[in-house]
Amino acid sequence: MTKVIDFQTDPSRYRHWGIEYDGPIAWLSMDVDESGGLFEGYELKLNSYDLGVDIELADVVQRMRFEHPEVKVVVMRSAKEKVFCAGANIRMLGGAAHAHKVNFCKFTNETRNTYEAALADSGQNYICAIKGACAGGGYELALACNHLMLTDDSTSSVALPEVPLLAVLPGTGGLTRVTDKRKVRRDLADVFCSIEEGVKGKRAVQWRLVDEVFANSSFDEKVAERAAEFASASAKPDVTQGIALSPINRQFATDAVTYSSVEVGLNRAESRAVITVKGPETTAPADMDAFTAEGAQAWMLRCARELDDAILHLRNNEKHLGLIEFQTQGDPELVIAHEALLLAHKDHWLANEVLHYWKRVLKRIDMTSRSLVAMVEHGSCFAGPLAELLWAVDRSYMMLEEFDGDNRPLARVTLSNGNFGTYPMGNDLTRLETRFLGTPEQVEELKNSAGAALEAEAAEELGLITYAYDDIDWEDEVRLFMEERASFSPDAMTGMEANLRFAGPETMETRIFGRLTAWQNWIFQRPNAVGPEGALQRYGTGVRGKYDMERV
Amino acid sequence: MTKVIDFQTDPSRYRHWGIEYDGPIAWLSMDVDESGGLFEGYELKLNSYDLGVDIELADVVQRMRFEHPEVKVVVMRSAKEKVFCAGANIRMLGGAAHAHKVNFCKFTNETRNTYEAALADSGQNYICAIKGACAGGGYELALACNHLMLTDDSTSSVALPEVPLLAVLPGTGGLTRVTDKRKVRRDLADVFCSIEEGVKGKRAVQWRLVDEVFANSSFDEKVAERAAEFASASAKPDVTQGIALSPINRQFATDAVTYSSVEVGLNRAESRAVITVKGPETTAPADMDAFTAEGAQAWMLRCARELDDAILHLRNNEKHLGLIEFQTQGDPELVIAHEALLLAHKDHWLANEVLHYWKRVLKRIDMTSRSLVAMVEHGSCFAGPLAELLWAVDRSYMMLEEFDGDNRPLARVTLSNGNFGTYPMGNDLTRLETRFLGTPEQVEELKNSAGAALEAEAAEELGLITYAYDDIDWEDEVRLFMEERASFSPDAMTGMEANLRFAGPETMETRIFGRLTAWQNWIFQRPNAVGPEGALQRYGTGVRGKYDMERV
C-alpha cells in the first residue's frame, strides 16, 4: 500500500455516497461501490468501507457545513437492501500494514468526531436511520450520530462483533461511545460486545443502544417525521446561501508540496518535513459580506484547508518523516486582522464555521503522531490562530535579537483574544490552559499581553516558547535537537507524545484517541489478531483464529 | 520465568529495604541487594529493582499502615552512595516475557498508588529525599511521593531517560505524574524526557520536577527539619499501638490454593479459576476494642488480605486461566454485621485502615486483566463489601428460585451503606455510580434497598446482576458463557475489558492504567524496543538500538 492517498475530492467524483438536499434536511445515503476500493485485493461488499469511502464522507460532512448552511438535520441511511453497513472492510484490514491500520482508524475517528460535534458547533444534527445489519464500524458510524432509529425486523440489528469475530476492538470510538455516550450498563456492554449477531428490536432500546425502534412498515415515515421535528425545533439560524469549496491550489514536486498559503518541504535525508504557513498578503476583508464574497479564497479559510490537507498528506504518505517543523512567514498584524474580523462576528454563520474549522485543523495537528516543533524565525507571523501552533508542538525555538545578514523583521509572537477560548483542544481546555495547568494565573496574566508583539526574551519569560537563541547558538542548538530527535525510536516518541500532549481533564475524544486507540494499536500488534493464525488473517477462510491463551 | 512468585513477605526476610521507626517519622532506605534478584540472569546494580524488590516495598507500605499507625511522615531515601535509584533493572526487563513486563508494571503502579494515597487515606505523608542519580523508575518512585527534595550537587539529578536510552516509556506513572501531578509545562516535559542525564539543581525546581533543592552540606538537616514540620503539622490522630499482620494461612495444592476465608479452585482444563469467598462464621466483634484484639484474625481484615493474595497469585502465576469466577458462601447478615461495625467507627484508625484496604483490594480486582464473572449461587453472601464483586466483574449470573436437590438458602444480594461511597473505583465513582452512569436516579433509589435481602427477580429488576436463571436453564447458560469466553482472543478481551470497566470521569490513576499502560504495552510489542536490534535488547552492549523509522 504505497499508493499516494489523496484527501481531496468533490461530489462529482463520489463513488460511495449519495446526498439529497431537501431544505433544512439532508438525506445522506451510504451506497458503497464494491469495486471502488482504494487499493487492490478486496471488494467493498455489504457497504463495508475503506479509507477511500471515509475520505468521501469527510468531504460530504465538510461541504455540508460550508456549502449547505441551510441544513439543520442530516439523516444517514443505507441505499442497500438488508444491510446498513458492515463496518471496515476486513480483507482490507487483514492486508494492511500496521501503520495504515492505525492511520485509517485515526482519520475515521476524526470524521466521526466532526459530525458528532456538528450539532454543538453548527446546529447540524445527525440522525442515523438503521435498516438492515449495522455491525462493527457500521454501528460506530451510527454511534457518532446523535439520534439512532432502528427498524424492528428480523434482519435489522446493531452489533459490535469485532472481539468474537476478529479478535480486535471496536476501535473507532465504539467501546468508548457505548460506555460514555450511550452510557450502556457495563455488564450489558460486555454481553453486547461478545455476541456476533448483535441486538435487535426493543432490547436495543432497553439497553440504550439506540433511541427508538419502529416496525418496518412505519419506519420511513417515522424517520421523516423525526427529521422534520428536529429541523423545526432547531435553534440554527436560517441561512439560504453557502459558499463553494472550490478545489484547493496544490502542486506536488519530489521534495515539496506547494499550496497558495502553505509550503511543505520534504527533507527525506533528515527525515523531516517543514511546513511553512504564509500569512495573508492583503488587508482583511472589510466585513462579513466581503469575507463571504471572497469565500474559499479568504485567507482564513484557504489557509485552514491547505494546512489540513498538508497534515493529512504527511501523515499518510510520508511516514518516514518523523519530525514536522512549523514555520510561518508574513505580517503578524495582518494575521491578527484577518482573525479579528471573524472573532468580531462569531454569530455570523461563516465566521463560526471558519473558526470551528481552525479548531479542527489544530486538533488534527495535536493528534498527529510525529514529533512537532515550531521554529520562530525572523519574519514569522506566529499570531492568533498561527500562535496556537506554538503550543500544539512538542517544543519551540525562537530567534533572539538580530541575526547577521538576516534583514527580516525580528521574530515576535502575538496573542489574540482567539487564543483564550476559540480553539480548544480535545481535552476541552485551550492550549494555553493545558500548557499552564500548574500555574493557571499565568493564563490570566497573558490576557494582558494580547495584541502586543512579543520578542524572544518576553516570549520566553512568559513561557510561550521553549528556547530563545541568538545568532551564535541558533544553528547548533536547532541541529542538535533535530539530530537527537532523529536518533530516537519513533514508537517511543509516539507513545511519549500521546501522553505528554493532553494533560488535564479527559473527554470522550481524548479517551478515544488515548485509551481506546492505544489498546487497539497493541492488539493490532498481537499474533492473536494479525499473526498467520490470527483471527484477522483467517477471517473468511472458514477457519477461526488460533489463539495463544496466555493473558497479559 | 516460570518460578512461582510469592507476594507474601515480612521484615525478617527483607533483602532490599531498611526501615527505622522514630516516633511519627519512619526512615525508609532503599538498599537493593545486587545478588538478590527474583530470577537468574541479572544483578540489581545501582539500586535498580525487579518485582522482588517491589514486593518488599509493598509489604513495608502495608505494614506501616497497620503495624505502625504512629507514623505520620515517611522519608524515602537511598542507602547507597551517589545513587538514589536507577529504576527497573533493564536486563531483567530485556529478558522478561511480555506478560511478565506488563504484570510487573501493574504491580509496581499499584504500590506507588498506595503510598501516594496514604496521605489522603491515612494521614501518612511520603517525602522523597533524593541524593545521587534518580532515574527512570527511580524518579517514578519519587514522583509518587508527595514532597520531593533534591540535593544540589554534581551527581544528583532526576531523569526519565527511558525514551532516548531504551525506546520504551516511563510507564510506571512517570509521564502521567509529570503532566498531571507535577503539572510540568509540556514542552519542558518533552525536553526532560529526551535527555538521558536528567535535570539538576535549581532548574529541577523551576521546572516543577522537585519541590526543593538544597546544598549537600545542609541536605540531611533540611530533610529532618521538613519531616519534623510535616509530622507536627499532621492532622493524623496519635495512635501508639498498631496490630501485627501475622502470616496469612495458605496452602497450595495442584488444583487449589486454600486460605482460611478464601478458596481458589484452578480448573486448568477449562482455563478458569474459581475464587470462593467464605463469609464470617461468628458474630461480629462487639466493638472496636474487640476488633483490635482480633487484629489480623478479624474476618474483615483477614478476608481482604487473603483475597488480595489470591488475586496476585492468579495474575502472576496462572496466566492461562483467562476467566476468574467469583463465588461466595456464607451468611449475608453476618457479612453486613462485620462491615457495619467498621462503617459505624470510620474515625477509628483501624476501621479506617481496613475499609481503605478493601477499597484497594477491590481496585486490584478492577485492574485484573482476566474476564471476571460472579456466580450468585444459593447459599451465597454477596453483601456489603462482597456485593462490590458483582459490579467489579464483567457480568454476573444469579440462581432464580429453588434448585432441585439444593437446600442452601436462596441466593440473594444485600446492599449496605458501604456500597454508596466506601469503596470507590479508580475513577473516583462508586461501582454503582459507574454502573448506572446513564441513570443516576437508580443509585438514589437503591439506597432505599440497603439492608434488604434481594432475591434474583428483584436483583435483576434493580439492575444489580446481569442474568437470573432457574434450575432448568442455569447449567446450560453458565456453560455456554464459559465456552464462549474461552473461545475469544485473550488480547481482545483485555483491551475490551480495559475500556468497558471504567466509564465516566478519568483520574490520574485511570490515566496511568488506561492511556499510559496501553501505550507502553504497545511499545513492549514493537521491534524497535524488544526486537533483536531493539534498544531494550541491546542495552549495555555498547551498541544502540537500530530502529525502523516509520512513524505509526
Characterization of this structure:
2 copies of one chain form a homodimer. Chain A is of the alpha/beta class and 552 residues long. Chain A has 2 domains: 11-233, Alpha-Beta Complex (2-enoyl-CoA Hydratase, Chain A, domain 1), CATH 3.90.226.10; 250-499, 2-enoyl-CoA Hydratase, Chain A, domain 1 (Alpha-Beta Complex). In chain A, strands 12-13-14-15-16-17-19-22 form an 8-stranded mixed beta sheet, sandwiched between helices. In chain A, strands 1-2-4-7-9-11 form a 6-stranded mixed beta sheet, sandwiched between helices. A 3-stranded parallel beta sheet of chain A has the order 5-8-10, covered by helices on one side. In chain A, a hairpin with a 3-residue loop joins β12 (250-252) and β13. The first copy, chain A, is globular. The two termini of chain A are 31 Å apart. The model of chain A has no long low-confidence stretch (mean pLDDT 96). At the A-B interface, α3, α5, α6, α7 and α18 of A face α3, α5, α6, α7 and α18 of B.
Quick structural summary:
Chain A has 552 residues and is α/β, with parallel strands linked by helices. In chain A, 41% of the residues lie in helices and 17% in strands.
Structural descriptors:
2-enoyl-CoA Hydratase, Chain A, domain 1; 6-stranded mixed beta sheet; globular; 22 helices; 41% helix; 8-stranded mixed beta sheet; homodimer; 17% strand
| Count of spatially separate domains of chain A | 2
Strand content of chain A: 15-25%
Termini gap of chain A: 31 Å
Give the name of the CATH architecture of the largest domain in chain A.
Alpha-Beta Complex
Going by helix content, strand content and strand pairing, the class of chain A is: alpha/beta
What would CATH call the class of the largest domain in chain A? Answer: Alpha Beta
The fourth-level CATH homologous superfamily of the largest domain in chain A is: 2-enoyl-CoA Hydratase, Chain A, domain 1
Total helical elements of chain A: 22
The averaged pLDDT of chain A comes out at 96
Low-pLDDT runs of 5+ residues of chain A are none
| Rounded radius of gyration of chain A (Å) | 24 Å
Helical content of chain A, roughly?
A: 40-55%
Shape of chain A: globular
